[in-house]
């Protein structure tokens, strides 16, 4: 009986994480974005703005810096691995600092979710970027899809999307 329980636990621990994202592999995939990207950011509030992203690998390869420019509004996001978990820290034009972790990476679609407690934010009170989704489009190394969702008071939700093209 103990043998069967031991085998069951071993199989669950192995197969139970088959669909779990590999944070280290996801971080390496994000590093392939190094360089400049341009697009148009379309928001569900009806606005569309010029959008530029610059990615650079920093700190001896331990961090990926994303510098974004939304029609003159500059922001920074740093992606890094800590304790084998992929984290993002976004220095936002909304004057806050959402900290997120990898939620999934399925077929190159990377989802990152803000942790409001770690970020010092209050859901329903503060306005902040709640999540990001980057679709790396594995068959096209010169294009990727970028999406983020802003949440705020009174049910505010703005979805922003852009198809980014590698600058030549």
Structure description:
The protein has 3 helices and 10 strands, in the order H-H-E-E-E-E-E-E-E-H-E-E-E. The chain is of the alpha+beta class and 168 residues long. A 10-stranded antiparallel barrel has the order 1-2-3-4-5-6-7-8-9-10. It starts with a helix and ends with a strand.
Question: What's a quick, concise take on this entry?
Answer:
The protein is α+β, with helices and mostly antiparallel strands.
Strand segment tally: 10
- Listing every helix as H and every strand as E from the N terminus to the C terminus, the arrangement reads HHEEEEEEEHEEE
* Spatial order of the strands forming the largest sheet: 1-2-3-4-5-6-7-8-9-10
Count of DSSP-assigned helices:
3
Structural class: alpha+beta
Give the C-alpha Rg: 18 Å
The overall pLDDT, averaged over residues, is 90
Distance between the termini: 63 Å
Roughly how much helix do the residues carry, as a percent range?
Answer: 10-25%
Q: How does the major sheet shape up?
A: 10 strands, antiparallel, barrel
Question: What is the approximate shape?
Answer: globular
**Relative strand content:** over 45%
Q: State the low-pLDDT regions, or none.
A: 1-19
